[in-house]
Every structure is written in structure tokens, then in C-alpha cells.
Design a protein that fits this description.
alpha/beta
């Protein structure tokens, strides 16, 4: 997350707002960041036996990087396996765009491959009222390669 975007989010408490710096593009970097910034959310949910709900919203296309998000959530699950994770994808590929449709299929396959009893992926398609999705989520993950602050944020 860039400094300007971080300052826009300054109204959130430190407990609620965590970010990986721009340029984190491989799984080993993600592991280092997670170990350095272990979030109390994981500890709280683990103690209560509750699901951590991760929202990933946006149209399915490569620059939105949903495929990478499946890998990141798999790594988080491996680091903290005794926690329940529900990953919710809201959005769909652009109708008629074969590249986007193929990318969506790849994301679905990757999610199926990584699914476990404690790591669950849901694909909800287009959602009219995203406000409720944001309110129900513990984490909003924006893995875009291109946008520093996407429309979904």
C-alpha cells in the first residue's frame, strides 16, 4: 500500500489496518511480512473458534491478481492452521471476454485445490449491495498488481 493510500485510511485503528508494502510479489515476502506483523485478529478468532472472513471484490482479470490471493491465503493457513478462514470472492469476469473467463476458471481451480475444512472459498458473483459484504468481513484483501487504490476499496 502506498503512503498516500495509507494516509487516506488513517481513520482505522492500527488493529484493523494492516498492509503489505507495494512491491511484495512473492510468497516468501508475504511470509516475512506476516511473521513480522502477526495480527491480533488471528489470535482473537482462534480463541473464540470463529471464522476469519476475507473479502476479495472486483471483476476477475489478471491485473486484479485474484490467483495470487489464493496462494497468499494458502500460506496464511499454513502459518496459522488452527484458525477457520472463509474467503469470499465478489465479482465475475467481463461477459464475453475470453481471457477474463479463462482467468476466472483458473482462480476457481486454484481455490478448489487449496480448500480444506478450515480454508473455505466462496464465489458469489456480482453483488448489488457490497456494503453488507464489507461490514460482515474481517479483512478486505485487494491484491491488484496495477491499482494502488482500486474502486472496490
Amino acid at each position: 500500500m502506498s503512503d498516500d493510500v495509507y494516509s487516506l485510511c488513517s481513520g482505522f485503528s492500527e488493529k484493523k489496518l494492516k498492509s503489505l508494502p507495494l512491491g511484495v510479489v512473492n510468497i516468501s515476502d508475504v511470509k516475512k511480512q506476516l511473521k513480522n506483523n502477526r495480527q491480533s485478529l488471528i489470535d482473537d478468532k482462534k480463541k473464540k473458534g470463529e471464522w476469519i472472513t476475507v473479502l476479495i471484490a472486483g471483476r476477475f482479470q489478471k491485473i486484479k491478481n485474484q490467483l495470487f490471493s489464493c496462494e497468499v491465503l494458502r500460506v496464511i493457513y499454513q502459518l496459522y492452521p488452527n484458525v477457520f478462514y472463509k474467503v469470499i470472492f465478489c465479482g465475475k469476469p467481463l461477459e464475453g471476454n475470453l481471457d477474463d473467463i479463462e482467468y476466472y476458471k483458473q482462480v476457481v481451480e486454484k481455490a478448489k485445490k487449496h480448500s480444506t475444512a478450515n480454508l473455505h472459498f466462496e464465489f458469489r458473483g456480482f453483488v448489488d449491495n457490497m456494503s453488507m459484504e464489507y461490514l460482515k468481513s474481517d479483512i478486505c484483501f485487494i491484491p491488484s498488481e496495477y491499482e494502488s487504490f482500486s474502486l472496490v476499496a
